[in-house]
Amino acid sequence: MSAIVQRYRARFADHEALAERARASLPGGVSSDSRRLAPFPLTMVRAEGPRKWDAAGRPFVDLWCGHGALLFGHAAPELVEAVAGQVARGTHFGACQLATTEWAERILAAFPSAERVRFTASGTEAVHLAVRLARAHTGRSKVLRFVGHYHGWLGELGPAALELPAPGLAFDPALALERAQVLVCAHDLDAVAQAFEREPDIAAVVLEPTGPCSGVVPLSAAFVRGLRSLTRRRGAALIFDEIVTGFRVGPGGAQALLEVEPDLTTLAKITCGGLPGGAVAGTRALMDQLDGSIPHLGTFSGNPLSAAAGLACLRRIAADRPHAGLADTGRRLRARLNALFDARGLDWLVYGEGSCLKLLMGHGQPGAAGRLDAAALEPATLLRRVHGPTWRRLRLALLLEGVDMSPSSFVSTAHGPAELDTVAAAFEAALDALEREGALSPTARPAHARDL
């Protein structure tokens, strides 16, 4: 057994007991596949600012940031006050509320492409509603999407493959409705144009505008602008999935940075102040179909708690204008980690825009992280960016040093110099541990999607 795994089991024996208890009532012991971790995941009891703690009081610098949902760190005072106040006033009125209207007004002010907003109970639901609107508006049925782009976990829009399927095979037989899908590799406008020629029934093109998983394979502005022109010519709706990037990469999301206005935008996470919820924002022509033509219901759509948190979050974004500082924090952490990788002669890279951190293990150019442009690398290399066994041991080693991260991580306004020092020191110690086990070979086996 790996020495790292042995240390992990010994240090966190109390968590192993908690994991065993969870497995008795939760499938796999977790409530989301993203929380699986071998030999067992850790269980946290509280969080504040840039850290979270387990029941034994052990602190961990948190780079998950609520899967990207927390721009101001854990338990930001303004958001705590807003949600606590709303709990005292009522958690569900079964009626309209003023906060929902003001929340929508804030979103419209941030996204010039949008004229109306409809709230949902989750980001996944928002994407499905956007597709329904596009189909009704165009009278067409098919959706064009891109390899690797993530649009939630349900049905036809469930997780996409990391590569195109073999001829005649659905890319995901268990989840996809093949007749409603057109799967295309990104970066290739000609391939998109050819898909429209083959499939005149395309109602919408849906994508993450910065690339799959919020920028793992960066998309060029030229490609996204080309999609805008092509969809207009073809009469199809352009849907931007900004569930992660909305209010994360800037106050107007990725579309403001790219200078491209979609027909529909899906939002969640930061938009909802880190609470459950989602939204579709779009043009009046598409959105006003919800004014009696297309049914949409939801017990918790635009609920008072999510509205309170979302409104408080958007107010603080408008007041603090935090994105320049967030980008600087992200830039400094990426530079420190890449310098560490280069000093060890590793072909590893941390890249990303703004406050986003993407880990790549095995780009094939040892010692080049300081000068490498991820956008110039092969998409297949970036999509399979972490080596399964090495990544798992790295994560355990980082947890032993008090840092919790994922292959796609984030920083918040709460992360300061002390947290960056902790992360850098944790990586130094974790790499030492991996080196002792001979686990730093650049030829390590690439991960399958299930390993990520």
Structure characteristics:
four-stranded mixed sheet; Aminotrans_3; 452 residues; 2 domains; 14% strand; Aspartate Aminotransferase, domain 1; globular; Aspartate Aminotransferase, domain 2; pyridoxal phosphate; disordered C terminus; PyrdxlP-dep_Trfase_major; transaminase activity; seven-stranded mixed sheet; alpha/beta; 40% helix
Describe the structure in your own words.
With 452 residues, the protein is an alpha/beta fold. The chain folds into two domains: 3-73 and 322-437, Aspartate Aminotransferase, domain 1, CATH 3.90.1150; 77-320, Type I PLP-dependent aspartate aminotransferase-like (Major domain) (Aspartate Aminotransferase, domain 2, 3-Layer(aba) Sandwich). 40% of the residues lie in helices and 14% in strands. It contains 16 helices and 14 strands. The protein has helices at 3-11, 13-23, 65-68, 77-89, 98-110, 123-138, 189-198, 212-215, 221-234, 253-258, 284-287, 304-320, 323-343, 379-383, 388-400, 417-436; strands at 44-48, 51-54, 59-62, 116-120, 142-146, 181-184, 202-207, 237-241, 264-268, 278-282, 348-351, 356-361, 403-404, 408-410. The strands form three sheets. Strands 4-10-9-8-7-5-6 form a seven-stranded mixed beta sheet, sandwiched between helices. Strand 2 and strand 3 form a beta hairpin. Helix 1 (3-11) packs across helix 15 (388-400), helix 5 (98-110) packs parallel to helix 12 (304-320) and helix 7 (189-198) packs parallel to helix 9. It is globular, with a radius of gyration of 22 Å. The model is unreliable at 165-177 and 443-452 (pLDDT under 50).
